[in-house]
Amino acid sequence: MCIKESLRLHPPVTVISRCCTQDITLPDGRVIPKGVTCLISIFGTHHNPAVWPDPEVYNPFRFDPESSKDRSPLAFIPFSAGPR
């Protein structure tokens, strides 16, 4: 829990980029066209108060199984997401 919380507060990679391989329609109807490069802010995700209450406070108990069961698996992405 302590390592995960440290990585949440201080991610080793702060931003990643991905190139869209197909047109993507967002829930609000906007379209991200194929070929566009999207930036994903890992730092911003890990410090988002809508996902992490008191995001600037070190609290390893955020990663207690009971505390994290309702959180999206994409809320904590210190090294990006997906298979390696």
UniProtKB/TrEMBL annotation:
<dbReference type="Pfam" id="PF00067">
    <property type="entry name" value="p450"/>
</dbReference>
<dbReference type="InterPro" id="IPR001128">
    <property type="entry name" value="Cyt_P450"/>
</dbReference>
<dbReference type="GO" id="GO:0005506">
    <property type="term" value="F:iron ion binding"/>
</dbReference>
<dbReference type="InterPro" id="IPR050196">
    <property type="entry name" value="Cytochrome_P450_Monoox"/>
</dbReference>
<dbReference type="GO" id="GO:0008391">
    <property type="term" value="F:arachidonate monooxygenase activity"/>
</dbReference>
<protein>
    <submittedName>
        <fullName>Cytochrome P450 4F1</fullName>
    </submittedName>
</protein>
<dbReference type="GO" id="GO:0020037">
    <property type="term" value="F:heme binding"/>
</dbReference>
<dbReference type="GO" id="GO:0050051">
    <property type="term" value="F:leukotriene-B4 20-monooxygenase activity"/>
</dbReference>
<dbReference type="InterPro" id="IPR036396">
    <property type="entry name" value="Cyt_P450_sf"/>
</dbReference>
<dbReference type="GO" id="GO:0019369">
    <property type="term" value="P:arachidonate metabolic process"/>
</dbReference>
<feature type="region of interest" description="Disordered">
    <location>
        <begin position="64"/>
        <end position="84"/>
    </location>
</feature>
<comment type="similarity">
    <text>Belongs to the cytochrome P450 family.</text>
</comment>
